[in-house]
Design goal:
By secondary structure, the chain is α+β, with helices and mostly antiparallel strands. The protein has a single domain, classed as 2-Layer Sandwich (Alpha-Beta Plaits), CATH 3.30.70.1290. Helix content is 41%, strand content 20%. The chain has three helices and five strands. It has a five-stranded antiparallel β-sheet, sandwiched between helices. A hairpin with a 3-residue loop joins strand 2 and strand 3. The longest helix is centred in the middle third of the chain and has 19 residues. It is globular and about 40 Å long.
Length: 130
């Protein structure tokens, strides 16, 4: 099914790994770049200190499924963070949460959740919306 999909990916053990702006910007850039390369539409992405939320769509006829897309983005993000930010620990937890949006109302609701997420994160001034 092409989606769109709302997804959440947490860091390993919910560790606050994305506390620096350069790390958050790297996560955003690499996720965006990976999805563009895979010809996947990224609607929105928010990065908090210990997780990310996003909405993406798989185009009709795409041979990749959501698990492959998320897996590719996680692998590339891990490689880049280890190279550029000298992170040596495991970045992502093994699984992720996803939700297939059934209609426009569902899409708008999830997009608003992402837009307002930085306000929801009590004490987390690092969350950013893109």
């Amino acid at each position: 099914m092409p989606g769109p999909y709302f997804f959440t990916i947490c860091t390993q053990n919910h560790k606050d790994l994305f506390y620096r702006s350069d790390i958050r910007n790297t996560v955003i850039s690499v996720f965006r770049w990976t999805l563009i390369k895979l010809e996947i539409k990224l609607h929105t992405l928010v990065v908090a200190t210990d997780h990310i939320h996003g909405i993406l769509s798989l185009p009709e006829g795409n041979k990749l499924n959501l698990a492959q897309v998320i897996g590719s983005a996680k692998v590339k993000t891990t490689q880049t963070l280890k190279e550029q930010c000298q992170m040596c620990e495991r970045i992502w937890q093994r699984s992720y949460y996803d939700h297939v949006m059934r209609d426009e109302k569902d899409f708008i609701e999830k997009a608003k959740y992402i837009e307002n997420h930085p306000l929801k994160e009590k004490g987390n001034q690092y969350a950013e919306w893109h």
